[in-house]
Recover the amino acids of this structure.
């Protein structure tokens, strides 16, 4: 785990009148974007990873605030890089904490919930790898990430693993904060408790992990749902969003284009999984590498890639279009059981056409480079290199 010192205090910048942004490092994925709504009742959206709460404090100081001065803390969802700081926050602030109704009760002891999450991710590793050495490499990586967190909270004297949410929000709630009205919509899929706060009348939406520069993890076995993820994205695509502020990565130039491109990327990946299964049986690891490139295996994005592709396979299984071959449990392979394959390269041509339609090539290179490879880039050297480089730099959400 990286240890951050106060020699590298994050920048904090005003990105709209009374709205500030800072980027706080964390060990699991790209740094957390923390948004600060500055009124006479200062509010933040998410508080980041527990060990880097001090960095948020230092960033707040740059604009005359502090954790103590915060009055409202809004959580988009219960993932470790968004909410684990809440385990220790109560000793620094009396701010009200907000989150989706039912989230805190379902999570219970946050440390225990992380152990459950870790086991879930390890199940995917076992499903994907028949070879013991490959499994061991991935399991060691998993232990390194989650183990560091568990060790740190165990050693923290003032850590309370029970996260208490003061205001349990439901879809449609609006709260008033220092003259601004903050609305909430329920946007499940990446995580079942995911909410998208927004500032009424301003078109500013804090979209958490829904719309990232790369595809979010959607882990069907734990807290994700691919069809809900798509529905949440489709809902966002119809909203009058002027500023789409994600929890990781850059703010997209065009919110609507970013959402639509993500939806198309998902569709292309899904078609690629189906096409490859139609060609022959595959296991999860093979499908991940074929869809996202060989280098994803050595990257911290690998678990996220396993989760999203596994969700796509499970969708095909639930639709009766694929079956699980339990030839060496828990390792699995998958076989196409749907309609007979199309003529040889029809699927690839379709993928190529869709990608060309998303954004013209010259614009795509400028503005849409973060999106994951939808299979077809295997025939496009430049684009493939770019996507794989991005994947290498990504970790898990
Ligand atoms: Fe997340």
């Amino acid at each position: 785990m990286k240890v951050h010192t106060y020699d590298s205090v994050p920048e904090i910048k005003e990105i709209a009148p009374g709205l500030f942004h800072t980027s706080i490092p964390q060990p699991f994925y790209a740094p957390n974007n923390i948004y600060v709504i500055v009124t006479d009742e200062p509010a933040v959206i998410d508080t980041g990873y527990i060990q880097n709460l001090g960095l948020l404090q230092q960033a707040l100081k740059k604009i005359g605030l502090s954790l103590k001065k915060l009055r409202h803390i809004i959580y988009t969802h219960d993932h470790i890089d968004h909410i684990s700081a809440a385990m220790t926050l109560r000793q620094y602030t009396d701010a009200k904490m907000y989150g989706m109704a039912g989230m805190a009760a379902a999570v219970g002891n946050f440390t225990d919930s992380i152990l459950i999450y870790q086991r879930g991710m390890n199940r995917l590793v076992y499903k994907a790898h028949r070879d013991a050495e490959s499994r061991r490499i991935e399991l060691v990586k998993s232990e390194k990430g989650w183990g560091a967190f568990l060790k740190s909270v165990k050693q923290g004297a003032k850590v309370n693993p029970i996260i208490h949410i003061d205001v349990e929000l439901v879809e449609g709630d609006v709260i008033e904060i220092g003259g601004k009205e903050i609305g909430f919509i329920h946007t499940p899929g990446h995580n079942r408790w995911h909410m998208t706060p927004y500032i009424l009348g301003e078109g500013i939406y804090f979209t958490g992990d829904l719309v990232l520069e790369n595809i979010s993890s959607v882990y069907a076995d734990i807290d994700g749902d691919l069809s809900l993820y798509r529905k949440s994205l489709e809902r966002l695509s119809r909203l009058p969003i002027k500023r789409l502020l994600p929890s990781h990565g850059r703010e997209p130039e065009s919110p609507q284009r970013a959402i639509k491109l993500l939806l198309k990327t998902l569709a292309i990946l899904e078609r690629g999984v189906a096409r490859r299964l139609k060609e022959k049986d595959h296991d999860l690891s093979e499908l991940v590498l074929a869809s996202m490139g060989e280098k994803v295996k050595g990257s911290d994005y690998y678990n996220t890639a396993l989760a999203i592709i596994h969700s796509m396979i499970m969708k095909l299984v639930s639709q009766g279009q694929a079956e699980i071959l339990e030839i060496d449990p828990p390792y699995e392979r998958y076989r196409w059981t749907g309609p007979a394959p199309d003529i040889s390269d029809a699927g690839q041509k379709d993928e190529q056409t869709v990608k060309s339609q998303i954004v013209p090539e010259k614009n795509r290179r400028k503005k849409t480079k973060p999106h994951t490879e939808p299979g077809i880039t295997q025939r496009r050297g430049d684009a493939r290199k770019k996507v794989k480089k991005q994947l290498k730099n990504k970790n898990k959400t």
